[in-house]
Amino acid sequence: MSDFTTVVNPATERAIAEVPRQGIEDVDAAVARSLQAGPAWRSLAPTDRARLLRRLADKVEEHAEELAQLETRNVGKPIAESRDEVGMVAEVFHFYAGTVDKHRGATVPVAGGVDLTFHEPLGVVAAIVPWNFPIAIMSWKVGPALATGNTIVVKPAEITPLTARRLAELALDAGIPEGVLQVVVGQGSVVGTRLVEHPDVAKVAFTGSTEVGRQVMVRASGTIKRVTLELGGKSASVIFADADLERAAAATPAGVFANAGQDCCARSRVLVQRSVLDRYLVLLEQAVGQWTVGDPTDPRIKMGPLVSAGHRRAVEGFLDPGMGDPDGGPVPAFARGTVPEGPGFWFPPTVVAPADPGWRLSREEIFGPVVAVIPFDDEEDAVALANDTPYGLSGSIWTRDGARALRMARAVQSGNLSVNSHSSVRVQTSFGGMKQSGFGRELGLEALASYSDVKNVFIATED
Ligand code: NAD
């Protein structure tokens, strides 16, 4: 096995970096440094810790274009998206800087004395991050972990380590002490497993597939680690006949093809009330025609390539005969976009319609630009279809009826829903899954709870 990982630009298929591949000894050394850095970091005056996080936010802003270009070259995502994501990273650090001195304990009325609670840091946190939003998802874990007084070791996906490594350098430039934020690049089965099993790691904040999340949960049980799991999804966008159909159709491509569909929140099932299905499909075809695919460094482009050749093969497999009709009939691709010629792991935006809810492509997470359009009859039918999945991450409801929007929002088993919108993630609001999309919440004030333990202290005051 080579001691280096070759990092490839998915839009050109060319190597852009060689990154040392780290192993178990590197994890152990990083965890030891993290453990050592812990006491000074947690006892820093809150205003000083907040100031360092703000400086990190400033560093990210100063280097925003460099980080965005690096992310686009490594992941293949359109530069406009990378700029937004890097902007969010700075906002995450600003937000959590503001929480350092506001994550307060309580005094509890009890007999015989005074009862206090403290939010204690956990110690060393391991963050395991996927390749689809590398720097953004890293920041969602680093921000609350550092704000609450933990130190952190981050393991990016092997194929997208560049912005994680750069962010760790910027943290040092910002004055965050050595050992507080470290990055270890290596294979999930080696470096990831070691972090999950390491006795000195107190918590694993994992984002990735449900399959690997399941293994993380099992392996973390050996040392009773705290675990938060942000896993896969098969979210539904539910479009009722009373919706603004033009708006819903125009928004559909961004809801499922953004980041080339490599988005845990992708609305890869669009449920459309049968009475408006034909009209919706005409509008959707027009919208897909405007969803341009090409060079991700071009700011006008809506979609870049998939992340790797292997991932493209996996996505292509969902259009094989048998992925639709179980008798082996062809998948009814209703509309497809176009892709550039030449190198690059391109895949056209693809609409499968009408799709049956039982088909594999309607049930499994594809993680590519493929959407299944499934008709429904009434609200009850829509709820049953939306919930007919082991996942529960995200979703949308399109209707002009406010009461129906609220009924649906309460009935759909999903951690993040939007009405007449496909937006799922904001710095200020919690984000996370129900069912097999995981547990625990990132972002917002809610994330702080999963990076600290509540300590209860009773002080007797009676003579
Ligand atoms: P993945 O599960 O293959 O890998 C995620 C991370 O885990 C990578 O860093 C990988 O190296 C590491 N890993 C792999 N095996 C490991 C092991 N045995 N022990 C510890 N770590 C291990 O996922 P991926 O292909 O990188 O990302 C795509 C998946 O991530 C999709 O399922 C997607 O839905 C999910 N995702 C979820 C969210 C969310 O917030 N819910 C966000 C983004 C992506």
Describe the structure.
The protein is α/β, with parallel strands linked by helices and 463 residues long. 37% of the residues lie in helices and 19% in strands. It is built from 14 helices and 18 strands. The chain has helices spanning 24-42, 46-62, 64-75, 79-97, 134-147, 162-173, 188-197, 210-220, 245-257, 277-289, 309-317, 360-363, 379-387, 402-411; strands at residues 4-9, 14-20, 107-108, 113-121, 124-128, 151-155, 181-183, 201-207, 226-230, 236-239, 269-273, 333-336, 350-352, 370-376, 395-398, 418-419, 438-439, 452-460. A 7-stranded mixed β-sheet has the order 12-13-14-11-10-15-16, sandwiched between helices. Strand 13, helix 12 and strand 14 (370-376) form a beta-alpha-beta unit. Helix 3 crosses helix 4 and helix 9 (245-257) packs across helix 10 (277-289). The radius of gyration is 23 Å and the shape is globular. The model has no long low-confidence stretch (mean pLDDT 97). It binds nicotinamide-adenine-dinucleotide. Residues 128-133, 155, 157-158, 188-189, 192-193, 196, 207-209, 212, 215-216, 230-233, 264, 365, 367, 393, 433, 437-438 line the site of nicotinamide-adenine-dinucleotide (NAD).
